[in-house]
Amino acid sequence: MPKTIKTKDGIVLNNIPDEVTDDEIKARIAAIRGGSVQASAPASGASSVVRPDGREYDPNDPTVGMSGTQKFLAGAGKGMTDLVRGAGQMIGVVSDEDIAASRQRDAPLMNTGAGMAGNIAGNVAATIPAMLVPGAATVRGAAAIGAGIGALAPISEDESRLGNAGIGAAGGAAGGAVAKGLSRVLNPQTGASVKQMIAEGVTPTPGQTLGGAFRRTEEAAKSIPFIGEGIRKAEAKGIQDFNRAALNRVLSPIGKKSTAIGNEGVEQARNFVSSSYDDALKSLKRVDIDTPFSNQLARISGMTQTLPDDIQRQFNNIMTTQVTDKLTPAGTMSAEQFKTVTSEIGKLAQGYKGATNSFDQNQLGDALFAVRKSLMDLAGRMNPSAKEAIGKADKAYAQLLRVENAASKAQDGIFMPSQLATAARQMDKSSRKVSSAQGKALMQDFSQQGRDVLSNTLPNSGTADRAIIGGLALGGGYLVDPTLAAAALVTRGAYTSPAQKAISALLTKRPELARSLGGMAQGLMAPAGAAGGAMTQGGR
What we know:
Blueprint: E1 3-6, E2 12-16, H1 22-33, E3 48-50, E4 56-57, H2 68-90, H3 96-110, H4 113-126, H5 128-131, H6 139-152, H7 161-186, H8 192-199, H9 206-210, H10 212-221, H11 227-251, H12 262-280, E5 286-288, H13 291-303, H14 309-322, E6 332-334, H15 335-354, H16 359-382, H17 387-408, H18 417-426, H19 434-437, H20 444-454, H21 463-474, H22 482-493, H23 497-508, H24 512-523, H25 525-537
Antiparallel strand pairs: 1-2, 2-3, 3-4, 5-6
Helix pairs in contact: 2-3, 2-4, 4-25, 6-7, 6-25, 7-24, 7-25, 8-20, 10-21, 11-12, 11-17, 11-22, 12-17, 13-16, 14-16, 15-16, 16-17, 17-18, 18-20
């Protein structure tokens, strides 16, 4: 029957089996008095020992007396050597008995937090070469590393190497996903189009900002009563912001800002541009037709010779009524007459260019735009001090034409980014639309960014997504489940204008330190995968 021995100096040995000899007990007491306790101490059967300070411990526990650092380092060593043992077991170099013995020996160490942490660190360190493989710093790469750790882990008779690999893959994927999520929180990878839209004063919805699965979820959620209405209103607000930003881009060369959108905003922009021409030409007293203008007009007229006869006649009639008939016998034109001529030719050019799909009439519109440009160049030569102001007004006017074209095809003049993109391409005057093909047509970059961010499309029809999310929301009903109703209120609140701006700022603006940490977190996906894979093995 086990016995307990207590010495005069306070050492207590509990539960000493009968087979332990007196010599073994004396040796054990001497070892305790000397302050050293060895794993192979003579009193190997003793289940616990109480030292003079009252602490009780298992005399067979190899971690007794080890500091936290020592346990961590021991665990790290186990993590690295276990992978070698597992590989040896696979090829028959290490026996199942050796694996079982090492597990039993290391069990006390793996029951400590420091030992387990060291074991995970050792697994991570052992897989560093695998982390250098391209693609390792992805969720899939992290899953592969976790699977590798699981496959190489030593196994007992009742364990499956394939099963360990599967569990390791799941743990690795989870670790990689956590690192990726942390990276996106610290340093959201919003697209360049999103950043540009926000810089232009457009506030996208959270889904439009984040894109991907977030965007698809938001699109699907539009079918949910109350929440969907908030999302649609926020999207409509984004389109209004886009229209205002487009008008402000039109007016930026002349230093003006739009205070309205739609038909009213377009009219306001035209008045601003017209006033800018008036200001630029204010000091112009008269215009004298010079040789460069005559040569340019002859060249433009020659270009129309390839067009049908009726188009040529239209061009010649316009030149006669709008230019020649307005000149004095000396070949001059008053400043007021000049303003009228350039305005009328511009309107005609826009009409032929934008109001028809006829190729020939589009060509006539291009020719009239060229005539107007030549007239403005003539004014710049007549009054060099106004040349810069005329150039700015010209740029604003050219952009205004694209916006007017888009607004003319939209209800109430509120146009979609796709309509502006069509107008930009349609009014591209480069040969064979080369500028459009290269993405360099006027207003094309802005309209494309709007399409990237604000277009309401799903990769699929969204029916399945809407059915799932709608079912989750409506299954219990807002009135039946107060928690669901509260969640709906919070979600709807996220799509109010103040919340939208706050969320956009939160998702796109970060201190430099946070961005740096986010980059580091992205780089930790592979190590996180190794850690996740090691954790699933439980330090066995």
